Amino acid sequence: MNRFRRTQAGRGRGFALAFPGVFWLIVFFLLPLVFVAVASFMSRGPGGVPVMPLTIDHYERTFGVFARVTWRTVRFAGLTTLYCLLLGYPLAFFISRRLHPRTRLILLFLVLLPFWTNFLVRTYALITILQREGFLNGILERLGLIQDPIQFLFTPSAVILGLVYGYLPFMVLPIYAAAERLDLRFVEAAYDLGANDWNAFWRVVFPLTLPGVIAGSMLVFIPAIGAFVTPDLMGGTKGLMIGNLVQSQFRGRGNIPLGSAVSMVLLVIVFIGVLVYTRFGNRED
Amino acid sequence: MAAPPIQPREPLQGRVKRDLAVRRIGRLGLWLTPVVTYFFLWAPILVLILFSFNDAESVSVWRGFSTKWYENIFRNTVSTDAIATNFRTQLLIKAVSNSLIVASFATLISTVIGTMFALAVARGNFPGRKLFDALFYLPVVIPDITQGVALAVFFKIVFDYIQLWTGQRMVSGYGTIIIAHVAFNISYVAIVVRARLATMDPTLEEAARDLGANHFQTFWRITFPILMPGILAGALLALTLSLDDFVVTFFTSGVGTTTLPLFVYGMLKQRVPPEINAISTLMITASILLVGLSLILQQRGSRS
């Protein structure tokens, strides 16, 4: 039916409708990315602006001095994705198995509501719990478990905790969508054929919900690898990520070519991630 | 059919015991993890709200109920002088109004453009359709810091050239923020509207055409009303993303166009005023009201 309509309509039809969107994205999205790509190969001029002689110094620095930060960023984002999956999968599955539609709606709403409040406010809420004179230390001290407050903030764990807290709903939603569509008759069939719970889950349930897992992992991994606010407010020096490197090169007397090179590396990591995920996704379909 | 005799590889009893143990652990995990996760999601927010009514500045020791932080905000009197420079109610109100200005323009523009694009890709027939389609997923995939940085470089270069040619120095402000927000919002609107288009029954449009409606009438009388919930949902998403955005705004804003997230960030980076719990509680309340309102609207829309 669709094809019929398309062949009937003349070529070029609809382009005028698409034009504003395409124009906007090319000029204000693609072109700026090209500028960054070009700037990343230029030298640093006065005031940090890119100037002419082309160079690959900034990439050498990115892989040399900044290699530790880059590797740490990938690790943080990977761990964040893993923890989100470990917490989010059972939660999404639990919600999808509630019988009453209203219960499902309310439970889902309870996941989404924190997500609808501003990211900075949520991060600050977590900081009030974790800080030196914060809620958690207060409780531990009153219970007599500790003498002096524990340093929770400004550690790598704090950054990962903050990222998990911030992006968990991104994991829950796609898995929920996949789990809700799951036909329980497949599971019954698995049981009838002699599978135990372990096999029924890993051979039937998990593969069927895998598209949700992949979508969720991507939705968590991408913002986590580019994170800048969470490590900035919760990380201290041991928790700095690529995002902080990029930001520091662009503010004040920075180094725009270096910042551009770092963000190009970030972009490549993201594309590799997307490529890997789509590969996995296609194979399982 | 004769089933082959079962040959247990290990003693049957041990297997049953193990399977039952797995089931028990699984069942426990399936209850425990959601409880823990909900606690994790909500505890910080509830503590924040509770302690915004604390009589003391502390977020660990409860000194009794008080609404003095809220009163400070509404009366524009802030506890100590050192902090008064960082936080003033007028600045907060200015930040809120900046956010609303940017978000409403960005939502309006991106909803129109995004809907047009969704229609064009679903119904149109022009060279490069597939390519443009891929282009539209780009903003969803690329981290916001990369986009923010790219736009910062872009505007800097464009402004430099404009100054070179016309002698006029342009600066970042509402315009640059709105342009940036539209750039990421269009994609989200287009994706949401396309999802609605995909579930739409194509025979309705054909019927309208058969009954003598032209393109224009078919669109306004049939397609548009059916798409309306999708368009509204897309607009709502755009509004939320725009109001919530920090990173892209951070790189494209100028002097005097501090939005609410930028304002909160400024407070957190400098000395944190004790009123921040109250401000955060007000922001949480506002977003809950907004979500509640949109849900009611959506339910009404689906009923009619």
The span between the termini of chain A is 25 Å
Major β-sheet of chain B, in short?
none
CATH H level, superfamily name of the domain at 88-269 in chain B: MetI-like
SSE arrangement of chain A, N to C: HHEEHHHHHHHHHHH
Beta-strand residue percentage of chain A: under 5%
Could you tell me the number of beta strands of chain A?
A: 2
| Helical residues, percent of chain B | over 70%
Assembly state of the chains shown? heterodimer
Give the % helix of chain A. over 70%
Instruction: Encode the helix/strand succession of chain B as letters.
Output: HHHHHHHHHHHH
* Poorly predicted spans of chain B: none
CATH architecture of chain A: Orthogonal Bundle
Low-pLDDT segments of chain A: 1-9
Q: Mean of the pLDDT scores of chain A? A: 83
Interface with most residues: A-B, 88 and 89 residues
User: Could you give me the name of the CATH homologous superfamily of chain A?
Assistant: MetI-like
